[in-house]
Amino acid sequence: MTHERATPCPCGRGETYDDCCGPFHLGSASAPTAERLMRSRYSAFVVLDADYLQSTWHPSTRPRTLELDVDRRWLSLEILDVARGGLLDSTGEVEFIATAVVDGRRQAQSERSRFVRDGGRWTYLDGVVAG
User: Kind of pairing, strands 105-118 and 121-130?
Assistant: First the structure.
């Protein structure tokens, strides 16, 4: 799936995809904070960019393969809390709710994700899904 570059970025920051998560997905930039990585990973789910998701997943927890659900239509991302994960941090956590439509039904996924710097780049380590 491609995403029109001039459209609003799915991550909800209010910028165009081309100015927000697009450069991360293309590999021309890396996310400067854990929150930006979280947002770019959400956008990767929206645009079905499994390669980006794999490349930003910490090697110790990354699955061998990743198949994205093409029938899941992501609607929104809401960041609830950010702990650390800044420019000078080595770890961070981001709590969020992502809303999608699956089989015509609205679903919300609530998670607290953990991130670590690996080789100077932020990577997704793991997350705890809330009820």
Answer: antiparallel
Looking up tokens 């705890």 gives: 128
Instruction: Encode pLDDT of 93-119 as tens digits.
Output: 999 999 999 999 999 999 999 999 999
Domain count, the chain: 1
Structure tokens at 118: 């690996």
Cβ atoms within 10 Å of 69's Cβ, excluding its own: 11
Give the bridge partners for 74, in sequence order.
100
What span, in angstroms and rounded, lies between the C-alpha atoms of 128 and 125?
11
- What size, in residues, is the chain? 131
User: Against a cut of 0.90, is the pTM above it?
Assistant: yes
Domain CATH code at residue 30: 3.10.450.50
Nearest to 69 by CA among 26, 102, 36: 102
In the structure, what pLDDT confidence band is assigned to residue 5 with cuts at 50, 70 and 90?
low
